[in-house]
């Protein structure tokens, strides 16, 4: 053991996966410190997220499902629209978290983050904000972590939950890096138009996808997906103007929605990336979870779900581990990777294939078949 008979874990990153893992490990009686580079520990203002059923299944284990259900919006299915707003097809989604959970819930990211923060604060974890890990010095019995404030501490395990551009991943010598898919996405909140009670998407028009998802009784999360442009060439002060211009070719609820695009500071513009570390996700006593190990275009809205499944499986694998010696820990971390890689690979490949079809303008692509096969597989327990 690093310091005592109680196992000690450092979680690097206080986002969705890091927060959820901290709560699950503390519930198992493991001592946890969580560090977060941001001093205010908040999600991006204004953005929204779609939580599929298999993400909700994990969040129920974390203890925040009822809060999310209350604050978010359990949409009644999905519809595909023509650019003028005419409904082409509507259907109920497969419930990937089981029949007792909604197919998906939309929620504002800051609200999700706050519910997770509240759970972390209540679970008894050590919390340090505005801090990063700058060095790992491992031996057979532990890992000494040096922090950006000059302090250090010894742990049995370090978990890198620090996102797509993970510093932890680079520090342990994993060289896989995310690669752009060729698409960019604009996201912004808006008031929920009367009658919008489900996720609705338009494929075609000026954008590859123009969609929105209710995130509360009063709000929606809107997104517009286009071919990737050089972000450095777009002045952030024009972000709201860009969203209005991109949405001009769409009718239906978009007529009302684009009137809300006035504040560029709440508009998020980023690229879609593909990322998958196919080799081991750990080096000694440092292991990756979530976007640090894998990420994909949100064409299936499975990014958060895959990250949350990671932390559930890792927490289950560590719970009850009697001896945290190097051999036992390596066996557990190797098993975690072996269990997660096939499922994560399936989602990354399917998400990227759908993105490729859109980029290529493939009218004959079997999108319903691809989505049906993938979502059916995800209904199985991870």
Note down, in words, how this protein is organized.
Helix 8 (303-318) packs antiparallel against helix 9. By secondary structure, the protein is of the alpha+beta class. It has an eight-stranded mixed sheet with strand order 6-5-14-15-16-13-17-20, with helices on both faces. Strands 8-2-1-12-19-18 form a six-stranded mixed sheet. It contains ten helices and 20 strands. The protein has helices at 16-27, 53-62, 65-71, 109-123, 167-171, 239-247, 254-257, 303-318, 326-360, 367-379; strands at residues 8-12, 31-36, 48-52, 73-74, 78-81, 87-91, 104-108, 126-129, 133-139, 142-147, 152-155, 157-160, 179-191, 199-204, 207-214, 219-227, 268-276, 282-283, 286-288, 294-295. 33% of the residues lie in helices and 29% in strands. The protein starts with 7 loop residues before the first strand and ends with a helix. The model has no long low-confidence stretch (mean pLDDT 95).
Individual helix count: 10
- What's the rounded overall pLDDT mean? 95
Largest sheet, in brief, is: 8 strands, mixed
Give helix and strand order, one letter per element, not per position.
EHEEHHEEEEHEEEEEHEEEEHHEEEEHHH
Radius of gyration (CA) equals 21 Å
Shape: globular
Count of extended strands: 20
Content of β-strand: 25-35%
How much helix, percentage-wise, in residues?
25-40%
Class of secondary structure makeup: alpha+beta
Strand order of the largest sheet: 6-5-14-15-16-13-17-20
Cα end-to-end separation? 30 Å
Low-confidence stretches are: none
């Amino acid at each position: 053991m690093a310091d005592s008979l109680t196992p000690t874990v450092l979680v690097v990153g206080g986002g969705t996966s890091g927060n959820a893992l901290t709560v699950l490990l503390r519930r198992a009686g493991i001592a946890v410190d969580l560090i977060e580079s941001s001093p205010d520990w908040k999600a991006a203002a204004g953005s929204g997220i779609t939580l599929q059923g298999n993400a909700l299944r994990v969040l129920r284990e974390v203890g925040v499902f009822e809060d999310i259900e209350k604050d978010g919006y359990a949409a009644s299915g999905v519809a595909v629209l023509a650019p003028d707003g005419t409904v082409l097809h509507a259907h109920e989604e497969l419930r990937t978290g089981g029949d007792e959970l909604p197919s998906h819930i939309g929620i504002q990211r800051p609200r999700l983050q706050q519910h997770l923060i509240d759970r972390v604060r209540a679970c008894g974890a050590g919390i340090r904000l505005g801090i990063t890990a700058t060095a790992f010095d491992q031996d057979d019995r532990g890992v000494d972590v040096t922090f950006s404030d000059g302090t250090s501490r010894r742990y049995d395990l370090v978990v890198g939950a620090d996102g797509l551009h993970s510093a932890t991943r680079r520090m342990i010598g994993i060289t896989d890096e995310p690669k752009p898919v060729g698409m960019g996405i604009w996201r912004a909140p808006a008031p929920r138009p009367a009658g919008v009670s489900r996720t609705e998407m338009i494929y075609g028009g000026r954008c590859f996808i123009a969609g929105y998802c209710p995130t509360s009784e009063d709000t929606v999360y809107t997104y517009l997906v286009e071919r990737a442009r050089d972000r450095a060439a777009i002045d952030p002060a024009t972000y709201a103007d860009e969203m209005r211009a991109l949405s001009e070719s769409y009718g239906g609820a978009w007529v009302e929605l684009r009137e809300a695009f006035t504040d560029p500071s709440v508009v998020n513009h980023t690229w879609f990336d593909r990322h998958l570390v196919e080799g081991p996700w750990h080096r000694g006593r440092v292991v990756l979870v979530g976007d640090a190990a894998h990420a994909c275009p949100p064409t299936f809205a499975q990014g958060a779900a895959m990250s949350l499944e990671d932390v559930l499986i890792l927490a289950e694998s560590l719970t009850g581990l009697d001896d945290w010696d190097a051999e036992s820990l390596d066996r557990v971390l190797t098993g975690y990777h072996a269990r997660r890689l096939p499922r994560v690979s399936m989602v990354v490949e399917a998400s990227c294939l759908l993105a490729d079809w859109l980029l290529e303008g493939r009218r004959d692509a079997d999108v319903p078949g691809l989505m049906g096969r993938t979502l059916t597989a995800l209904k199985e327990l991870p």
